[in-house]
Amino acid sequence: MVVLNKIYTKTGDAGETALGNGSRVAKHSLRVTAYGTSDELNAVIGVARLNAEGIMDERLMRIQNDLFDLGADLCRPDMAKDAESEYPPLRMVDAQVARLEAEIDEMNAGLAPLRSFVLPGGSALAAHLHVCRTVARRAERLAVELSGVEEVNPAAVKYLNRLSDWFFVASRAANQNGAGDVLWVPGANR
C-alpha cells in the first residue's frame, strides 16, 4: 500500500532522486528518463480518455495501470536480487504483453488492410491515440537504450513495443474502423 502524506521532501533539490531500491541517481539518468517517459505516456493517455468511452476507455484505463507497473519495474534495478528480497519488486510479465496482442488482434480484425501510411488525425480520439503512439515509441527507445547499459526486464521492453502497435490499431478503430483514416498521399504537394 502506498501512503503519501507529504508531497514534497526536498531530497531532490540537489538534482538527485531515489530509485525503487533506495539508491540515489541524477534526475537526468537514463533510468529516470525511461520511467519518467512512461509517466508522460500515462498522462497523455489520460487526455485521450476524455474522448473515449465504453471498452476503449476501459482498455485505456487498464493500460494506465500497467504503465504504473512499468514505472515500478524500471525504477528498480538489480533484477538479480529480486529472489533475495523480502518484498519482491513489481515486474512486468508476459501475460500483460499477451493481453495487448489479443486486443490488437481483436481490433485489427474489423479493419481493412492499409494501402498507404496513416497521417495522425481523423477523430479527436484517434489524434490523441497517435500522440500516445509516438510517446510510447520514445519510451520504448529509452528502455532499449537503458537495456544496453543496465539490466532491464525484457517483458517491459516487449510491452512498450506492443503498446505502440496497440495505439496505432486503436487509432484506426477510433476512426470509424479505418473509414475516417487520413491517408498519406506521397508527393501530393509538390
UniProtKB/TrEMBL annotation:
Key words, A-Z: ATP-binding, Cobalamin biosynthesis, Cytoplasm, Nucleotide-binding, Transferase
Residues spanning the membrane: none
Molecular function in Gene Ontology: ATP binding; corrinoid adenosyltransferase activity
One Gene Ontology cellular component annotation held by this UniProt entry: cytoplasm
Superkingdom of the source species: Bacteria
Location in or out of the cell: Cytoplasm
Catalytic activity, EC: 2.5.1.17
Catalytic activity: 2 cob(II)alamin + reduced [electron-transfer flavoprotein] + 2 ATP = 2 adenosylcob(III)alamin + 2 triphosphate + oxidized [electron-transfer flavoprotein] + 3 H(+); 2 cob(II)yrinate a,c diamide + reduced [electron-transfer flavoprotein] + 2 ATP = 2 adenosylcob(III)yrinate a,c-diamide + 2 triphosphate + oxidized [electron-transfer flavoprotein] + 3 H(+)
GO biological process entries: cobalamin biosynthetic process
Span of domain Cobalamin adenosyltransferase-like: 7-173
Pathway participation: Cofactor biosynthesis; adenosylcobalamin biosynthesis; adenosylcobalamin from cob(II)yrinate a,c-diamide: step 2/7
InterPro entries to which the protein is assigned, alphabetical: CblAdoTrfase-like (IPR016030), CblAdoTrfase-like_sf (IPR036451), PduO-typ (IPR029499)
Family the entry assigns: Belongs to the Cob(I)alamin adenosyltransferase family.
PANTHER family, A to Z: CORRINOID ADENOSYLTRANSFERASE, CORRINOID ADENOSYLTRANSFERASE MMAB
Protein name: Corrinoid adenosyltransferase
